[in-house]
User: Which sequence fits this backbone?
């Protein structure tokens, strides 16, 4: 579904991503791990269109997407979750979802002016979809709560819920488990798995929590110093000497 081919991304003298190639299979929940500074977040940003690669290519469903804008990539149903920023904290959970769909009818003045009835009914449709999504991630009870007052884990669920409004085919998650308590972590894992099983959504996720990665992801891709070091099922990665070395090296360097 996603193919990264020999991608390089430099920042001044730092080569954050170096000759990196990897594939993500449709319908997989693929984990991306590696020591701090390995280039994981930079690679996400290249895939999602925030950065253009200096060289190399990115394909999504066999179509080149490197060089496209984040919005164009979003329209191809490849979606990257974003942290709930201050602006969104001041909106309710439901409002956070209602503003999500790109290019909804109500956004263009022409439609509002020409077809007010159509806009109203689409707003209603969006609300129904938002409520269904909130039901799915079990946040319906909190629909009128300000996003800013959610717990860390609930915010992560809301981030995922927002991505669902866009009906993605693939979702990139950067550290979904960060700051999430064990109860919500279980919910998060269940939700991601259900979305894959029931909606066929493909996931690529960066995570530091090894329990979460080992339980949820297959395969796991390991990045080190900007490139792919290893790939395999959890058991193989756990016992991989090169992987262990990369982590220890990163820690003591
Ligand atoms: N915007 C940036 N400007 C300069 N250097 C950056 C920038 N983003 C990342 N880097 C550098 O690129 C390397 C990889 O960073 P990053 O992709 O955040 O790694 P990871 O997410 O694996 O921890 C690091 O050395 C980091 O300091
Ligand atoms: Mg990172």
Assistant:
């Amino acid at each position: 579904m996603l193919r990264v081919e020999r991608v390089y991304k430099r920042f001044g003298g730092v080569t954050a991503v170096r000759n990196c190639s990897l594939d993500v299979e449709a319908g997989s929940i693929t984990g991306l791990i590696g020591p701090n500074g390995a280039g994981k977040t930079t690679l996400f940003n290249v895939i999602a269109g925030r950065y253009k690669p200096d060289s190399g290519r990115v394909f999504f469903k066999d179509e080149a997407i490197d060089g496209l804008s984040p919005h164009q990539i979003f329209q191809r149903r490849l979606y990257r979750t974003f942290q709930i920023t201050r602006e969104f904290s001041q909106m309710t959970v439901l409002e956070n979802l209602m503003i999500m769909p790109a290019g909804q009818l109500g956004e263009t003045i022409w439609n509002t002016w020409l077809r007010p009835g159509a806009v109203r009914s689409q707003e209603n449709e969006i609300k129904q979809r938002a409520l269904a999504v909130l039901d799915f991630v079990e946040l319906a009870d909190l629909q009128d709560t300000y996003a800013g007052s959610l717990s860390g884990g609930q915010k992560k669920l809301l981030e995922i819920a927002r991505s669902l409004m866009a009906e993605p085919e693939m979702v990139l998650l950067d550290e979904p488990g960060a700051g999430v308590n064990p109860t919500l972590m279980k919910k998060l894992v269940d939700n991601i798995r259900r979305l894959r099983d029931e909606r066929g959504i493909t996931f690529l996720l960066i995570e530091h929590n090894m329990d979460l990665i080992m339980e949820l992801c297959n395969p796991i891709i390991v990045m080190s110093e900007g490139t792919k070091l290893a790939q395999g099922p959890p058991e193989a990665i756990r016992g991989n000497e090169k992987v262990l070395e990369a982590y220890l090296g990163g820690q003591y360097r």
Notes: The chain is about 40% helix and 25% strand. The first helix runs from residue 40 to 47.
